[in-house]
Amino acid sequence: MTRRVSPFLMTVFGIGVAFLYIPMLVLIAYSFNASALASVWGGFSTNWYVALAHNTQILHAARLSLLIAVIASTLALVLGTLAAIALVRFARFRGRLLLTGMVHAPLVMPEIITGITQLLLFVSMLQLFGWPHRGMLTIVLSHVAFCTAYVAITVQARLQSADVALEDAAMDLGARPLEAFWDITLPIIRPALVSSWLLSFTLSLDDLVISTFVSGPRASTLPMIIYAKVKLGVSPDVNALATLIIAAVGACVLIAAVMARRADKHTQPAA
Amino acid sequence: MQGWPFGLYDSGADSLYALCLLTRTLRRVSTHTAIDKKNNLPAASRGEIPVDGVRAAPFWLKAAMWAGRGLIVAPPLVFLAVFFLIPFVFALKISFSEASLSIPPFSALWQTVVGGGGHLVLHLKNYRYLLTDGVYAISYLYSLKTAFFATLACLALGYPMAYAMARAKKSTQSILLLIIILPFWTSFLLRVYALEGVIRDNGLLNTVLLWLHVIDQPLKIMRTTLAVYLGIVYSYLPFMVLPLYATLEKLDMTLLEAASDLGSRPWRAFVDVTLPLSMPGVIAGSMLVFIPAIGEYVIPALLGGPDNLMIGRVLWDEFFSNHDWPVAAAVSVAFLVVLAGPLALYQHARIKQLEH
């Protein structure tokens, strides 16, 4: 069958891609601009990267954000997977409807509402129990809550398409339920686990709104610092930081693509 | 996989479609190896399921299984209840209180009386304020309107893009997909900031247009409604393109050939065949753009002007500038009610649909 993409479609695709990429390319270009003024090209310079390396505020925030993202996405992976298993494998249990609702609701609830209500919870808890003080801990708890929802949905989709008969077979042949899960189910859902961990990690790393509400005076995450700087106008060191982030994301996506392609070649050697 | 990506709920997972498509092959491989490892015992997996009697478990095993179930169900259930649901209970409670200059800045509902005892003070004025002061209703409707038109704009740009991807050669498709996925994984905040660099008064767009003598005054885009629309389309375009591509890719092209053999012009074939068949992708993509756009804060705050009062921004200001927590709590409760209704209806309709 001959495939022909009409010039109209190709043009629109080109426009769309240009729209997506030009702002990022401009940002990268600005990050190497010697002039601090956005409108003037003052020559090539890596000054802003040097400045970034010495900006302890940004470095602290970056470390805090990475730490929060790793902890939150790992905890969310465990909780979300448990939720997915419960929803897919157990037909009926007490609280099933509640769990279904709570897994889906964070995806449609505006994050500003989630942030406000969680802040009100933490404030009320502090009043009642004297714990938790707002800071890294409260940010982690909030992030785990919304990341759990994303993990649960992804793993659920994967688990639904997995064959229950395989688990049954293993158990009929004498595997204990935990063994069957570990040896059969886990390898099947592993790609979903990997992608949902990565998604949780990115969502947590990128979250501004919820973190701003639930964080305390001393815990400023990277997006909070970036937002404060950007709000005031152009800041060349944010350009440099953005370039580094875009480069890191680009590298990760490319590696994932190459790995996927290799795996593809393995399965279909003479395709 | 039931109906994925056919609905709102699955569409959450759909936003993962990007990576899933990438790891699709990885997944296939690992599934195979999982089976291969156990290949020395797959008799049962080939359909020779043993009779039920074999599986009848003794009582203690059943009890252990129930306990095991509890261990699986309880952690996510309790965690989400405490950190997602119960916050709304506190919001409900605080929405009945009164703003005050204390820390935290709201009054207690239970006012103790000197000499013991006390009485419950419920203030309904926050809800009355929501209904009488139009700012919330107006900003909510304005958010709906903005999100709706931004979604349409996204669809208008995203559909041809997805279609172009789906019609491209298979080998090109994976590269095109990568191009769309990369912005999807890049920080949202940084992308909004990047857009600002282009549409600023002295940004790239104005510089180029001035240089080309298309205009002699810089265009004022920043802090206008247009900037908000551009921001939403720019930020959420990949969310629209990916599910659309997923449905269009699966489309049977022979149907279009059949339509053209039967005398249909390409345009008619598109309207009569392609468009209806791609509706699931259209709905999923639109939901992925529309829902987050309603509550959007960053885009109107960074790119919008003073008139772009979207609900997220109004709430933020109420909270951080006016310090009126009880009103913000009342808005949160109202939001839950406003959202819960349509969601329940949607869920109901979906279950009905699945039953058919």
Strand-residue proportion of chain A: under 5%
**Greatest contact between two chains:** A-B, 122 and 126 residues
CATH architectural label of the domain at 136-323 in chain B: Orthogonal Bundle
Count the DSSP helices of chain B: 16
Mean pLDDT of chain B: 79
By CATH, the topology of the domain at 56-234 in chain A is: MetI-like fold
Strand order of the largest sheet of chain B: 1-2
The oligomerization state is: heterodimer
Overall 3D shape of chain B: globular
Q: List low-pLDDT spans of chain A.
A: none
**What is the H level of CATH, i.e. the homologous superfamily of the domain at 136-323 in chain B?**
MetI-like
So what's the overall shape of chain A?
globular
Task: Give me the strand/helix succession of chain B.
Answer: HHHHEEHHHHHHHHHHHH
* Strand segment tally of chain B: 2
CATH level 1 class label of the domain at 56-234 in chain A: Mainly Alpha
Count helical runs of chain A: 11
Proportion of helical residues of chain B:
over 70%
CATH topology of the domain at 136-323 in chain B: MetI-like fold
On the 0 to 100 scale, the average pLDDT of chain A is 87
The rounded Rg of chain A comes to: 23 Å
Question: Would you write up a description of this structure?
Answer:
With 271 residues, chain A is mostly helical. Chain A has helices at 7-31, 47-54, 56-89, 96-108, 111-129, 136-161, 164-172, 177-206, 209-214, 222-231, 236-267. Chain A has a domain at 56-234: MetI-like fold. Chain A has 11 helices and no strands. Chain A is globular and about 75 Å long. The mean pLDDT of chain A is 87. Chain B is an all-alpha fold. Chain B has a domain at 136-323: MetI-like fold (Orthogonal Bundle), CATH 1.10.3720. Chain B is built from 16 helices and 2 strands. Chain B has helices at residues 8-14, 17-37, 52-55, 59-95, 125-132, 135-167, 170-185, 188-199, 204-211, 225-250, 253-261, 266-277, 279-294, 298-302, 311-320, 325-355; strands at 110-112, 118-120. The interface between A and B is large, with 122 and 126 residues.
